[in-house]
Specification:
The chain has about 350 residues and is an alpha/beta fold. About 45% of the residues lie in helices and about 15% in strands. It contains 12 helices and 11 strands. The chain has a 6-stranded mixed β-sheet. Strands 2-1-3-10-4 form a 5-stranded mixed β-sheet, sandwiched between helices.
Length: about 350
């Protein structure tokens, strides 16, 4: 009888389906194209379907949860949720070395930006492991961070003396070196700040500015990537990651690359062209009604001046903040790809 019962228990255990893994996922800004077009479909549909129902997802976003932007990754490391994604620049107060991921003006195309990210990824993975108890799953782009102004400008030099909202610490340093005043204003507060004169200009992605209605409170668009590509890092709590079996880890790794990261990068270059068309009316706008901002030409002199300030002042300043060893590591990875060396 005992033998028969043991066989029945063993057979039942073999026949029972594996328990589903449930992931609590916190996405980036819910109103922006990266979340709408890529994050939400991937976590809500693609990954659960690819797992055959073995992975379920509870998805929200950090703005829907009213999370402080600097709290997103520390809370992830504490296990408050399983997966989180947001702009890496939001975490630099806790990890100044992370600023080396998204350096302004070094990448003018999506292919160049992807090459930079791929070179930086081992460095970023170590930062997230050590600083945030997390495993990096993906690094995806917002489009290049360009300049919206509610002031008449005709070139980069006209930013001198203006109050400009930066998209990250390194961008703020660059703006200050150009003679502008860097102002810290959160993304959601920018329209009011532009309208009320708290800032004269603000840096963000062209598509983000279009989606958020910045064209209603700004008149001129300077399409120089002063804010880099605002890389968005997707990471999973390290304890949760280590609790998953090897097959589940492999499935998530493969699916997040093919179903989320690669498509986001593939659309990034066309997105910039389309977003500028939507903001200025120069070309077809696939996202909706084209607006009529003034497009400011970026001259070779403008670009050369900004790039010189970046390499002679901004990057060395970052190397001092990041601490020993990070400049050398950056030189050997990102610097080698873009042909820049921090001395």
């Amino acid at each position: 009888m005992k033998k028969t019962l043991s066989v029945l228990i063993a057979s039942t255990a073999l026949a029972a389906p594996a328990l589903a893994e449930n992931l609590a996922v916190v996405g980036s800004w819910s109103s922006l194209p990266l979340h709408k077009q890529y994050e939400a479909p991937f976590w809500g549909e693609t990954l659960p379907a690819a797992s055959g129902g073995d992975i379920t997802v509870e998805l929200t976003t950090h703005n829907q949860m009213s999370l402080g932007l600097g709290d997103i990754y520390p809370l992830l490391g504490q296990g408050v949720y399983d997966v989180a994604m947001t702009v890496a620049d939001y975490a630099v107060a806790d990890a100044p070395e992370l600023e080396g991921l998204d350096v302004p003006l070094l990448a003018l195309t999506a292919d160049e930006a992807r090459a930079m990210v791929d070179a930086a990824r081992p460095m970023v993975s170590d930062i997230y492991r050590d600083r945030f108890n997390s495993h990096v799953l993906a690094i995806a782009p917002y489009p290049p961070q360009v300049v919206f102004c509610n002031a008449e400008i005709s070139n980069l030099g006209d930013l001198e003396g203006l109050k400009v909202r930066a998209s990250g610490r390194m961008t703020a340093k660059l703006l200050e070196a150009l003679g502008a005043e860097g102002v810290n204003v959160s993304f959601s507060e920018v329209p009011g700040a532009l309208q009320n004169g708290v800032v004269d200009c603000a840096v963000t992605g062209a598509g983000s500015g279009y989606s958020a209605g910045w064209w209603e409170v700004s008149t001129h668009l300077l399409p120089i990537p002063l804010g880099g590509w605002d890389s968005v890092v997707t990471a999973i709590n390290m304890d949760k990651w280590n609790s998953l079996n090897a097959d589940t880890q492999a499935l998530i790794t493969e699916q997040v690359a093919s179903g989320f990261e690669d498509p986001a990068w593939e659309s990034a270059q066309d997105a910039l062209v389309n977003d500028i068309a939507c903001l200025t009316g120069n070309g077809e706008c696939p996202a909706g009604e084209a607006r009529s901002m003034t497009l400011v030409d970026v001259s070779d002199a403008d670009f050369d001046r900004a790039r010189d300030i970046l390499t002679s002042e901004v990057l060395p300043d970052w190397a001092d903040r990041a601490g020993e060893g990070w400049a050398a590591r950056w030189n050997e990875s990102v610097g080698a790809v873009v042909g820049v060396t921090i001395n």
